[in-house]
Amino acid sequence: MAQQRPGAQEILTSVLDEASFEAFPTPVQHPVDALYAQELEQARAATGLDEAVLCGTGTLDGRRVVVMAGEFGFLGGSVGVTTSNLLLQAADHATAEGLPLLALPCSGGTRMQEGTPAFVQMVKIGQAVLAHRRAGLPFLVHLRHPTTGGVLASWASLGQVTTAQPGALVGFLGPRVQEAITGSRIPEGVQRAEHVVAHGIVDAVVPDEELRALWSRLLQVLDPTHRSVGLPSGWAGAAGPPPGPAPSDAWQAVLTSRQEGRPGFDELTAELEVPLWLSVTGDGQVGEAIRVGLADLGGRNCVLVGTRREAWVLPADLRLAQRGFRLAQELGLPVVTVIDTPGAALTEQAEDQALSGEIARTLGALAELEVPTVSVLMGRGSGGAALALLPADRTLCAQHGWLAPLAPEGASAIMHRTEGHADQMARSHRISADELQAAGVVDEVVPEPADLAAEGTGFCRALVRAVDAQLDLLDEVSPAERLAARLHRFRSFG
Predict the structure, then answer these.
(1) DSSP state of 28
(2) Please, are residues 303 and 368 in contact by the beta-carbon 8 Å criterion?
(3) Region 92-118 average pLDDT
(4) Cα(167)–Cα(185) distance, rounded to whole angstroms?
(5) Contact 87/125 with Cβ under 8 angstroms?
(6) Cα 335 vs. chain centroid, distance in angstroms?
(7) pLDDT tens digits for 283-299?
(8) Which residues pair with 344 in a beta bridge?
C-alpha cells in the first residue's frame, strides 16, 4: 500500500487553530534556465503554492507559533535558494518574536536543478534553528513521508523533540538513489519511521491526527513559566500511609530494597503526566535502563530522568540522560533524577561503548547544570550508574534506599574473595539512608509504609510531594547561588 502523503496545507490545517495561519510572502525567484522556469510553473499549478515549503504564523490552542511545512508535490519537496530563504525567514521570525518553531518537513533533499548553490543553503537554515534553540525556545519536528537528503541531514534532525509519521521514509538517501550510487539496495524497512525509533534516531511514531494534541501538551511542558493547577486533588493534604519501622541496619535496607513488588520508577511515573518519553541518543544505540520524560510534576514542568528497577545501565542509557540534561538547560526546566538500579552493565558491549566515560560525562553534566536539580534515591544505589544521577542541589532518599560504590556482594568479593561478607560490607560502608543523611549526602529521608508493595501508590505520591517541596525551595535561590552551594556541598564531603 502506498504511503499517504498529506500536503502542506492539509497538515497545517490539522495542527493549527482554524483560520489562524498567515503565510509569509515568498521571495522573488530567478530560475537559471527556461526548462527550470517551466518546471516551477507546473509545480505552482499542481500545488497552488509558490514554493516547496509553506511557512508562516498561526496559533495552536491559542498559543502563537511559527510553522514550516514541506510540500512534496512541489518538485519533490526539494529545497532551493528561495525555499531556504522562506525557511530562514520562519526561523528568524520565531527567534525575534520569542515563539515556538514547529517543523513538518517532507522532502527529497536539495533541489538538483540548482545544484551546489542550493545545497549549501542547508548551513544557514541549521544556523538559524540553533540560534532559535539557544534563545531557549522550543523547536519541535514531525518527519513526514519522505524526509531524506540534506533536509534530514540539517534542520530536520535538530529538533528538541522529533516524531515521525507511521511508515514514513526517513533516511539519508532514498533507496532508489542509494541503489544507483552503490549498486545495491538498502534492506526494506531500515529507513522507515518504526525502525529509526527503535534505534534511538527519532523519539516516537505519531499519527498526524494525534500530532496537534501532542504538540499542544509539549508546548506547555517545555515552557518553564507554565504552571498547572498543582498536585492532583487529594495529594497535597493527604498524609499518606503511616511509616513502617526504620531498618535495623544497612544490610536490612539492602534486602528490603530488593523485595519483589517494591515500586520503582515506572510505578512512580504512573502517578504523573508524562506526555512523551524521549528515545533519541544521537548514535543509533538504545538502552532500556534509563527513561527520560518531559513531565508535569506537581504542577511544575521538569525533565524527569530515572532508572528502571531490574535493568542494567548501558552507555546508551547514559547518553540519553545527558540529552535530557541538555534539553533542560536549553529551556530552563528543572531536572529530577530517580535512582533505583542494580548498576552498570558488566558486558563486553558496555566496555566497547565507553561505559566509564559515559558515567563520568553524565555525572559532570548533571553537576554543572544551571537549572534547579533534585535527585531521589528511591531504592538501590549501586555503583557508578547510581552516582552519575546523584549530584543535585538537593537529594532525597527513601527510608530503605542506599548508595554504595558496589553492591555489597561485589565489595565482599573484592575484599574477601567471596560474597559471604556482603552484610558486613553494607554495614561498614555506611550506605543506609540515615547514614547518608548524617554525612550530608542526603537532605531528607522519606518514610516508607510498613507494606510498601500494598501501599506503593501512597508512597510514590509522598515522594512527589517531597520533590515538589524541594523545588519550591530552590525557586528562591539564584542560579549562581545554587551552583556555588552545589560545588561547596560536594567538596565538603569526607
Answers:
(1) P
(2) no
(3) 96
(4) 18
(5) yes
(6) 11
(7) 888 999 999 999 988 78
(8) 313
Judge contact between 493 and 440, C-beta under 8 A: yes
For residue 372, whether the previous peptide bond is cis, meaning omega lies within 30 degrees of 0, is: no
The alpha-helical segments, DSSP class H, found in 346-455 are 348-352, 355-367, 383-387, 408-416, 422-428, 433-439
Span between the terminal Cα atoms of the chain, in Å: 65
Q: Which of 146-155, 227-236, 397-406, 408-417 has the lowest mean pLDDT?
A: 227-236
- Cα–Cα distance for residue pair 368/392, rounded to 1 Å: 9
Taking residue 181's Cβ as centre, other Cβ atoms within 10 Å add up to: 8
As given in the structure block, the three cell numbers for residue 377 are 534515591
Count CA within 13 A, CB hemisphere, residue 23. 14
394-398 β-sheet, strand order: 273-278, 290-297, 300-307, 335-341, 373-381, 394-398, 444-446
Task: Tell me which residue has cell 547510581.
Answer: 386
- Quick one: which of 100, 281, 121 has its CA closest to 201? 281
Q: Say which residues have a Cβ less than 8 Å from residue 82's Cβ, sequence separation at least 6.
A: 26, 27, 28, 29, 51
